[in-house]
From TrEMBL:
Residues 9-76 form the RNA polymerase sigma-70 region domain. It comes from Edaphobacillus lindanitolerans. Belongs to the sigma-70 factor family. ECF subfamily. The keyword RNA-binding does not apply. One of its GO terms (biological process) is DNA-templated transcription initiation. PANTHER family: RNA POLYMERASE ECF-TYPE SIGMA FACTO (PTHR43133), RNA POLYMERASE SIGMA FACTOR SIGV (PTHR43133:SF60). This is RNA polymerase sigma-70 factor, ECF subfamily.
């Protein structure tokens, strides 16, 4: 029974996990290796599936943690070597927690959080709900479509329009413009 559940989850989320792995590693072969490690952990922890409410969020967490573990291991090995790995770049470093954020980072993050929350409050209710379901509650598109009684295409359109509208509002706000890339 549990094995069937893992199989169903694999069928539904395999592409999502692969694209997340590819985004993290930026290398097809490494993405496939990472994905294999992720699914191995899922199979090993299939008993934990019974207590999982949001499978996508659970899988994302496993994927991110597996990536961080692999990255740290690579960095530890490369500390004894003169050159860093070829795949090392700044966006990947952003994913690995450092000793702690600086005071400036914390202030900037708080400012940005306030601005985004303010702009979210200005969005039409339908767009705000869709954004919150997807990004905050991490519901899948299917779950949002069921909750809102609309098609998946409508959910995608609402997410797209909401992001566009948020970006427009941020660009029009002098205090927020520094946080938004044009």
């Amino acid at each position: 029974m549990a094995g069937q559940k893992v199989e169903l989850i694999y069928e539904e989320y395999e592409r999502f996990i692969y694209h997340l792995c590819l985004k993290l590693t930026r290398n097809k072969d490494e993405a496939e290796d990472l994905m294999q490690d992720v699914w191995l952990k899922v199979v090993r922890n299939e008993k934990a599936l019974e207590g999982v409410d949001h499978v996508k969020a659970w899988l994302t967490t496993i994927c991110m943690n597996t990536f961080r573990d692999r990255y740290r291991k690579t960095v530890r090995r490369s500390q004894h070597v003169m050159e860093q790995p070829d795949t090392l770049d700044v966006p990947i470093l952003d994913l690995v927690p450092c000793a702690g954020p600086t005071a400036e980072d914390l202030l900037e993050r708080d400012d940005l959080r306030e601005i985004v929350q303010s702009k979210l409050g200005e969005l039409d209710v339908i767009y705000r709900k869709t954004v919150l379901y997807f990004y905050v509650n991490q519901y899948s598109l299917i779950e949002i479509a069921d909750l809102m009684k609309v098609s998946i295409g409508t959910v995608k359109s609402r997410l797209f329009r909401a992001k566009q509208r948020l970006k427009e509002m941020m660009l029009l706000d002098e205090t927020a413009v520094g946080y938004v890339g044009a």
